[in-house]
């Protein structure tokens, strides 16, 4: 697929994206009451795959670094534009260490980018943005290219879905509950992205899944998962477990 390349200038540089994803068998624990373990793992992998595909389709993205310990995601034939790194030792853990683990995975991915493409701008994209599309990625990166550091808040306005840094600035990750305020305090300017953008619609709780089902009916929910048959529309509200 041919992709247009802006001519020159810092604002025209193409980005490297770092996508941290937990092992699907333990990720998204707040969905445990709504899905059995197998369905939840398949959902996590499907969301990560959709996120990576949106990034690869964006004109402003050069390559993706997927940081994950998940064996299914790691074994998937992503293609030459995706590098898979294992999660750093000690990054996995329970709720108390989840923030530190995510930050460590982000920094590991960023370190790889600095080795592979030292002057490339870097964007961290959490792997739970299944409604994200390429045009939204390009819009965010165009705005972020004019700033040393920036971030995109989640739909609630308190968390973070994307974190950016242009050369020669380094990322200052501080993910976890309330991360938007921490990232702003660390110098990552909050970007004005519409709340309806897929760049802000992360999936953490059952209510998010129901919104996603309404937003993405039909073929987008019927695509192949990495470890099973076609997704039998598990995101429809009727398939959620009762609390």
Quick structural overview:
This protein has 243 residues and is α/β, with parallel strands linked by helices.
Q: How would you describe this protein?
A:
This protein has 243 residues and is α/β, with parallel strands linked by helices. It has helices spanning 37-57, 71-75, 98-116, 134-144, 179-185, 206-215; strands spanning 15-20, 61-67, 82-85, 122-125, 149-153, 160-165, 189-190. The chain has a seven-stranded mixed beta sheet, with helices on both faces. α1 links the parallel β1 and β2 (61-67). The longest helix has 21 residues, at 37-57. The termini are far apart. The model is unreliable at 1-8 and 218-243 (pLDDT under 50).
